[in-house]
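User: Predict the structure for this protein chain, please.
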Amino acid sequence: MKTELDKGIDNSLQGPEADAIVKRIREKTFEWGMALPPAEPMLFDFGLGDFDTIGETEFWIANEEEHGYCGKYMFLFAGQRCPEHMHKEKHETFFIVKGDVEMTVEGDTFIMHPGDVLPLKTSTRHTFKAVTDCLILEISKPSVIADNFFSDSRLGYKD
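Assistant: Here is the predicted structure, written as structure tokens:
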């Protein structure tokens, strides 16, 4: 049986292009004086084939389904957006580690800066866009791929 991490990796970009992107991310985080977890990164374009605009890279620190928690870094290059979505099961809290993020929650848009914290209850529609290269720490209930419900009907994950 596949784990949620396996499902995420199956739905992420692979190959030389993905390797080059991860190299750029590692160079940027090194420049910031930060370490990333050793987990295999997941580069999501959400099935649209436009990673530079609709995309993000996730580094899962832990996804402890049995124990009820998840921690992960999300890296976005300036201009990248995570599409609007919500989760029926997952409560999550975002902490901006580096960069500036345009966050839209239930239609209200605001800018988040390093040190800002945003808790999101289940079923809260949200999207975020990197104003500058950014690193976000997400602390949440476990990540379950099937618990991502996108507003754009073209989006989704394969099981």
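The chain is about 15% helix and 40% strand.
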